[in-house]
Amino acid sequence: MIFYRLKQPWLFCLVLSVMGGCAKQEHPEGLSSKDGVIVGFSQIGAESAWRTCNTRSVKEAAAQAGVQLLFSNAEQKQENQIKAIRSFIAYQVDVIAFVPIVTGGWDNVLMEAKDAGIPVLVVDRKIDIQDESLYAGHIGTDGVEQGRKAGLFLLEKFKDQLGNGEPIHIVELSGTTGSSMAMSRAEGFREVLSPYSQFQIIYSESGDFLRSKGYELMRSILETGLDIDVLFSHNDSMTLGVLNAMKEAGLKPGVDVVIVTVDAEQAAINALIRGEVNCVIECNPKQGPEIIRLAQALVRGEKIPRLIHMEETVFYEGEDLSSLPPRGY
Ligand code: GZL
User: What pLDDT digit, counting tens, does each position of 63-73 carry?
Assistant: First the structure.
């Protein structure tokens, strides 16, 4: 748990003792929202370049706005997120923002935040909750649309084969099981392709958004001799692992296997330019300024939109990307 921009170093120790006890404490003297907004931010981890960019974006935006950020890295564990949120409640932050690693299991802790009068902002991924009033709004990206874009690219890519009865075998490496992003990308992808029976998802497995798992899964898939025409990977980190496994097996990724990947980190754009992937779907991690703006609005007692999706695009093989600015992740 790292505290950004706390004015009094002594406060660090006091707050740490609060965090450990998770007991309800009076807002420590000398630091309250009159000294500027205090936001507790629970981030899921650092599993991908996308995630580290998302974290950097929030920290930089908080610093820019003079917002005090209590930052917690949950290291991919929901129980750590729940502990952090309870600590934010004990510290009586002005706003709680968190990235729900999975959709379920948030009702109780968000009820505690509501009882403490602290508004909650759901960031990036979505939650599945009984009482929608337990959070003020969600800002993130549209995973279903990202999945649809992947499907639409394949319809275009294989348009000359449609109707010839030839099956098009798809392997899907999905994100963290139970995460809204894994479910939504899978949903949008299937929504577009299910009317076309030639597209057959012959293998789908979670690679947990991790490069190492993308490599391991692809290596074992290739060892089975499965005939793969397409890989749909829910994030670039897993795709980068896949590229290594394919090359080790003597395959030409992007040529022998059509690859569609999501995030649009620099390494994936570079692979697109090299012809090793065929389509990169942007998922915009730079949500920090919007998150801080929404947090400040909540502190002012303003209502915020229930749902805000970031602007995003798609990068295609053969596009001239020479003027594309560095991705920053
Ligand atoms: C998407 C985000 C996903 C990214 C992955 O909004 O939740 O989590 O696609 C990251 O790179 O791990």
Answer: 999 999 999 99
